[in-house]
C-alpha cells in the first residue's frame, strides 16, 4: 500500500546497497527482492537483543536486521553525535585480514591505495576497482605490518567483494604468491563517534589515546578484551571503530554508554546516514557504484602517488587517463530549495537540459537545510554553479557547494 | 511520467518495516469527531467542507517533518489518491486524500513551520481543506475506535 507509512528511503537504500547492478534501474528492480529478503531470515548481530531492549526499531539492511533508530529522533541523534557522542553497532560490516609475505602486493593489485607506503599501524580509505576503473566497493585498509593488512568492507558488498578477492587470491596463490585471508566473523564492530568518544574510551583502556591519531590502528586491550582499534569513522567527527570479540561486544557497548554517563547515545542507521552526508562521505550503492571511478567520485586523493605513476591495479588505464584528461562527470555537494532531493532526483540546467543526478540527499539536522550530493557534467562542478533539482516533477533552485557540509573534526597528528 | 516513476520509488513492501515498534509506545492521540483513512490521514467535516491532515500516529512514526508539499488551491483531489507529500529526515511519504473534491484552502503556514505537523497534528498542522463532492465516501472511513484498533494491529504485525 502506498501512503504515509508505506515509503522508505532507507529501505530502498538497503535494497540498493545489496544490489550488484550499477544502473539505477537495477537498484529499483531490487525493491521487490529486498522485501522478500526482509521476510526471510535476516542475520542478527551479537547486539540484536541489546538493540531491542534499548528501543531499537529494527529494519532489514543489506541482509541484516539493524536498528534504524532508537527512542531519540534521527534529528536529535544526529545533533547529539556532534555535541556529545554516538555509539553505533556496525557489525554487519565485514572485517577481513590478509596475511602473508605478499599480502600487500596482492592487495595493491586490487585497490588504488599505496598500501606499501603506509606506516605500520596506519590506514587509508581506498577503493576496490574493476577492470573498467569502476568501484566495486570502498573500504578502509590498515597496514598492521608488512605481512598483515586489515580491511573493513561494506555489508552490502560482502559477497561480491569476497568472491572478487577470493578469485584473484586463488590465481595469485597458483603463481606461488604467499597470501591467505581470514574473515573476522568471530568479531563485532562498534563505532564510537563524537567529541566524547576519546574521553569515554580512555576510561576503558590503558593505551594513551592522545598519541593515537586519525587513521591509526592498534591491537589493544579495551574493557578486558583484545580489540582492534582504528581511529576512524563515518560521521566526520573524531572517533573510533572497535573490533571486539563478539562474546564481549554487549559488555563493551554497556561500558561505553555507562562511562559517558548517558551522554553517548545509541544511534541507528538513520542518523548515521545524515551524519555521513553532512560530512560529505560517499555511501556505496548510492554515491559510488560499479560504473563510477574514484576520479569521478572525487577520491583521486586516495590514489597513492606511486600508484598514479605505476598503475598496476584493475582499470588503471581508465583511471590514469581520467587523472590526466579530467573525468566526464564529477561528484558535487549541493544545497537546494524546496523539498529535500533524494537519490535519483534529476539535475537540470536553467534551460531544462539534463546535466546529472542526485545520488544522496536529505535535510541536514545540523544546518537546517537541504543537502545533497550527486554527479554533474565536468565543468558544472565548481562551487557556486547554479542549476535545478527536480523533485516530484517540479524544479527547485540548487547550487554547488564545497563538501564537507559540516566541518570535519578528525584528530589529526600535529 | 517522471513523477509517477519517482512516486513508485517510495512505495515498497519492505518499507512497512519502518513501522516496527519494538518498544511500548505511549498511545497516540486519536480524536473522537474525526474520520480516519487506512493511510493515516484524518478528515474533519463541517458542512460540505472537510479539513484534512495526518494523524498523531503517522507523525510519530515519521519523525521530524522537515517539508510539506502542498497542492494548489483549486486542484481536484480524489479519495485514496495522492495530493502531496511530507518529508521527514528519513523518508518521503505520500499524503492521500480521504475524500474527493476541490481544494479550497491549503495551510501555507506549514511552508515556514513544517514541524506543526508533529507538534499539533489535528489543529495547527492541518494540511488542506476540501469542498467535498461525494459525502457518501465518508462512510468508507474509520471512526476513532476503529482507527485506534487499526493502528494497534498494524504495529503488532511487526
UniProtKB/TrEMBL annotation, chain A:
Main location: mitochondrion
Pfam family, one: GCV_T_C
Reactions listed under catalytic activity: N(6)-[(R)-S(8)-aminomethyldihydrolipoyl]-L-lysyl-[protein] + (6S)-5,6,7,8-tetrahydrofolate = N(6)-[(R)-dihydrolipoyl]-L-lysyl-[protein] + (6R)-5,10-methylene-5,6,7,8-tetrahydrofolate + NH4(+)
Gene: LOC125539759
GO biological process assignments: glycine catabolic process
Gene Ontology CC annotations of this record: glycine cleavage complex; mitochondrion
Family that this chain belongs to: Belongs to the GcvT family.
Residue ranges annotated for the GCVT N-terminal domain, each copy included: 47-305
Domain Aminomethyltransferase C-terminal: 331-406
EC number from the UniProt entry: 2.1.2.10
SUPFAM superfamilies recorded: Aminomethyltransferase beta-barrel domain, Folate-binding domain
Binding site for substrate: 241
Record lineage: Eukaryota, Viridiplantae, Streptophyta, Embryophyta, Tracheophyta
MF GO annotations: aminomethyltransferase activity; transaminase activity
Keyword Signal appears in the UniProt entry: yes
Listed name of the protein: Aminomethyltransferase
Signal peptide: 1-16
Role of this protein: The glycine cleavage system catalyzes the degradation of glycine.
Domain of life: Eukaryota
Major enzyme class: transferase
InterPro entries according to UniProt: GcvT, GcvT/YgfZ/DmdA, GcvT/YgfZ_C, GcvT_C, GCVT_N, TrmE/GcvT-like
Organism: Triticum urartu (Red wild einkorn)
Keyword annotations from UniProtKB, A to Z: Aminotransferase, Mitochondrion, Signal, Transferase, Transit peptide
Subunit structure: The glycine cleavage system is composed of four proteins: P, T, L and H.
Cell location: Mitochondrion
The keyword Electron transport belongs to this UniProt entry's keyword annotation: no
Automatic annotation (TrEMBL), chain B:
Any Gene Ontology biological process: glycine decarboxylation via glycine cleavage system
The protein's required cofactors: (R)-lipoate
Location within or outside the cell: Mitochondrion
Residue intervals passing through the bilayer: none
Residues the record lists as N6-lipoyllysine modifications: 90
InterPro entries for the chain: 2-oxoA_DH_lipoyl-BS, Biotin_lipoyl, GCV_H, GCV_H/Fam206, GCV_H_sub, Single_hybrid_motif
Note on how the cofactor is bound: Binds 1 lipoyl cofactor covalently.
PROSITE patterns in the cross-refs: BIOTINYL_LIPOYL, LIPOYL
Keyword Transit peptide listed: yes
Keywords for this protein: Lipoyl, Mitochondrion, Transit peptide
Main location per the UniProt record: mitochondrion
GO cellular component: glycine cleavage complex; mitochondrion
SUPFAM superfamilies documented for this protein: Single hybrid motif
Domain Lipoyl-binding: from-to ranges: 49-131
Record's signal peptide: none
NCBIfam families: gcvH, PRK01202.1
Family stated for the protein in its record: Belongs to the GcvH family.
Subunit structure: The glycine cleavage system is composed of four proteins: P, T, L and H.
Protein role: The H protein shuttles the methylamine group of glycine from the P protein to the T protein.
Protein name per Swiss-Prot or TrEMBL: Glycine cleavage system H protein
Species assigned in the record: Triticum urartu
Lineage: Eukaryota, Viridiplantae, Streptophyta, Embryophyta, Tracheophyta
Amino acid at each position: 500500500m502506498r501512503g504515509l507509512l508505506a515509503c522508505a528511503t532507507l529501505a530502498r537504500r538497503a535494497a540498493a546497497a545489496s544490489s550488484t547492478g550499477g544502473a539505477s534501474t537495477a537498484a529499483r528492480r531490487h525493491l521487490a527482492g529486498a522485501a522478500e529478503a526482509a521476510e526471510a531470515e535476516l542475520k542478527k548481530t551479537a547486539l540484536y537483543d541489546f538493540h531491542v531492549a534499548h528501543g531499537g526499531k529494527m529494519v532489514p539492511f543489506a541482509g541484516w536486521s539493524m536498528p534504524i533508530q532508537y527512542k531519540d529522533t534521527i534529528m536529535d541523534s544526529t545533533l547529539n553525535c556532534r555535541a556529545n557522542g554516538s555509539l553505533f553497532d556496525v557489525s554487519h560490516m565485514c572485517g577481513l585480514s590478509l596475511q602473508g609475505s605478499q599480502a600487500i602486493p596482492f592487495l595493491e593489485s586490487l585497490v588504488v591505495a599505496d598500501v606499501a607506503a603506509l606506516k605500520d599501524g596506519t590506514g587509508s580509505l581506498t577503493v576496490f576497482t574493476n577492470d573498467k576503473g569502476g568501484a566495486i566497493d570502498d573500504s578502509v585498509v590498515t597496514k598492521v605490518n608488512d605481512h598483515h593488512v586489515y580491511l573493513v568492507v561494506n555489508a552490502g558488498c560482502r559477497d561480491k567483494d569476497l568472491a572478487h578477492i577470493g578469485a584473484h587470491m586463488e590465481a595469485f596463490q597458483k603463481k606461488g604468491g604467499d597470501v591467505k585471508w581470514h574473515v573476522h566473523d568471530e568479531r563485532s564492530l562498534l563505532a564510537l563517534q563524537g567529541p566524547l568518544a576519546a574521553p569515554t574510551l580512555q576510561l576503558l583502556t590503558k593505551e594513551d589515546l592522545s598519541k593515537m591519531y586519525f587513521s591509526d590502528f592498534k591491537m589493544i586491550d579495551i574493557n578486558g578484551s583484545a580489540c582492534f582499534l582504528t581511529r576512524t569513522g563515518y560521521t566526520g567527527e573524531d572517533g573510533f571503530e572497535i573490533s571486539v570479540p563478539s562474546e564481549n561486544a554487549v559488555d563493551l557497548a554497556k561500558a561505553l554508554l555507562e562511562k559517558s554517563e548517558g551522554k553517548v547515545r545509541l544511534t541507528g542507521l538513520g542518523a548515521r546516514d545524515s551524519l555521513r552526508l553532512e560530512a560529505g562521505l560517499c555511501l556505496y550503492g548510492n554515491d559510488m557504484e560499479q560504473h563510477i571511478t574514484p576520479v569521478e567520485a572525487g577520491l583521486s586523493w586516495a590514489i597513492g602517488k606511486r600508484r598514479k605513476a605505476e598503475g598496476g591495479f584493475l582499470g588503471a588505464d581508465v583511471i590514469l587517463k581520467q587523472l590526466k584528461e579530467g573525468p566526464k562527470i564529477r561528484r558535487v555537494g549541493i544545497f537546494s530549495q524546496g523539498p529535500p532531493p533524494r537519490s535519483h532526483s534529476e539535475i537540470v540546467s536553467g534551460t531544462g537540459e539534463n546535466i546529472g543526478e542526485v545520488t544522496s540527499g536529505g535535510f541536514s539536522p545540523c544546518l537546517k537545510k537541504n543537502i545533497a550530493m550527486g554527479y554533474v557534467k565536468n565543468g558544472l562542478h565548481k562551487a557556486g554553479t547554479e542549476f535545478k533539482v527536480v523533485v516530484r516533477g517540479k524544479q527547485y533552485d540548487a547550487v554547488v557547494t564545497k563538501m564537507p557540509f559540516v566541518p570535519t573534526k578528525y584528530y589529526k597528528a600535529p | 511520467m517522471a513523477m509517477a516513476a519517482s512516486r513508485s520509488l517510495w512505495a515498497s513492501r519492505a518499507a512497512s518495516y519502518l513501522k516496527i515498534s519494538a518498544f511500548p509506545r505511549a498511545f497516540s492521540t486519536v480524536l473522537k469527531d474525526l474520520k480516519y483513512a487506512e493511510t493515516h490521514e484524518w478528515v474533519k467535516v463541517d458542512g460540505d467542507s472537510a479539513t484534512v491532515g495526518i494523524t498523531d500516529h503517522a507523525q510519530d512514526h515519521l519523525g521530524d517533518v522537515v517539508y510539506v508539499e502542498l497542492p494548489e488551491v483549486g486542484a481536484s483531489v480524489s479519495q485514496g489518491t495522492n495530493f502531496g507529500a511530507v518529508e521527514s529526515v528519513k523518508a518521503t511519504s505520500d499524503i492521500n486524500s480521504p475524500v474527493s473534491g476541490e481544494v479550497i484552502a491549503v495551510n501555507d503556514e506549514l511552508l515556514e513551520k513544517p514541524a506543526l505537523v508533529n507538534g499539533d497534528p489535528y489543529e495547527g498542522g492541518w494540511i488542506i481543506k476540501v469542498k467535498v463532492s461525494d459525502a457518501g465516501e465518508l462512510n468508507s472511513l474509520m471512526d476513532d475506535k476503529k482507527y485506534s484498533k487499526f493502528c494497534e494491529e498494524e504495529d503488532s504485525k511487526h
